[in-house]
């Protein structure tokens, strides 16, 4: 059981996207993040020529505007970056975070490669650590990440239970009202 939890936690921590973006087109994706989770996005761009079906060099003045919002639609990250780079932010509360990318490129198609990492895969460790120190630090951060994900799942479970209880309560009272209505109609029909 513990191994299954660890594997599912590790598999969901990194993903890659391949996007084709037109001039001034805004592309967004959502990422479910627990509370105080770090998200790192590493990206690079290439121009795509449809007539030749090939990739061209990217203009050095190219800007990629990146904007991220939390579940309350509060701005978490906003900035202009170059044709290749890295952005990072830490979630303030759990839930669906939206990350949007927009190109300033004037040509028709820009291909954007994006790798998204969440949690302990975002850490860059110091090279001066011994192997044992590095493993202890990695395992400690993995345990911390699992605890955060468990807290997030408990929060989602509580929300689900509240909705379930409310629905069951409404169904119960609906049946009671229908039964009383039928009991009231039976004497009238005789």
Q: What does this entry look like structurally?
A:
The strands form 2 sheets. Strands 1, 3, 4, 7 and 9 form a 5-stranded antiparallel beta sheet that branches. A 4-stranded antiparallel beta sheet has the order 2-8-5-6, with no helix packed on it. It has helices at 2-11, 131-189, and strands spanning 14-21, 26-33, 38-49, 54-56, 64-69, 75-81, 84-90, 95-103, 110-118. The chain is flat and about 85 Å long. Helices cover 36% and strands 36% of the residues. The model is unreliable at 1-13 (pLDDT under 50). β5 (64-69) and β6 (75-81) form a beta hairpin. It is an alpha+beta fold. The protein folds into 2 domains: 13-124, Jelly Rolls (Sandwich), CATH 2.60.120; 128-190. The protein is built from 2 helices and 9 strands.
What assembly state would you assign to the polypeptide chains in this entry? single chain
The average pLDDT is 80
CATH level-two architecture of the largest domain: Sandwich
Number of domains: 2
Amount of beta strand? 35-45%
């Amino acid at each position: 059981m513990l191994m299954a939890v660890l594997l599912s936690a590790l598999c969901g921590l990194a993903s890659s996207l391949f996007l084709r973006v037109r001039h001034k087109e805004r592309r967004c994706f959502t990422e479910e993040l627990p509370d105080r989770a770090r998200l790192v996005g590493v990206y690079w761009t290439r121009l795509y020529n449809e007539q030749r079906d090939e990739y061209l060099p990217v203009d050095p003045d190219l800007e990629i505007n990146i904007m991220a919002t939390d579940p309350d639609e509060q701005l978490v990250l906003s900035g202009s970056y170059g044709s290749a780079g890295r952005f990072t932010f830490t979630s303030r509360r759990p839930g669906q975070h939206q990350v949007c990318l927009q190109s300033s490129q004037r040509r028709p198609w820009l291909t954007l490669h994006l790798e998204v990492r969440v949690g302990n895969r975002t850490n860059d460790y110091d090279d001066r650590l011994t192997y044992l120190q590095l493993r202890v630090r990695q395992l400690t951060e993995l345990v911390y990440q699992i605890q955060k994900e468990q807290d997030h799942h408990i929060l989602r479970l509580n929300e689900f239970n509240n909705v379930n209880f409310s629905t069951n309560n409404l169904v119960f009272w609906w049946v009671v009202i229908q039964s009383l209505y039928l009991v009231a109609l039976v004497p009238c029909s005789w």
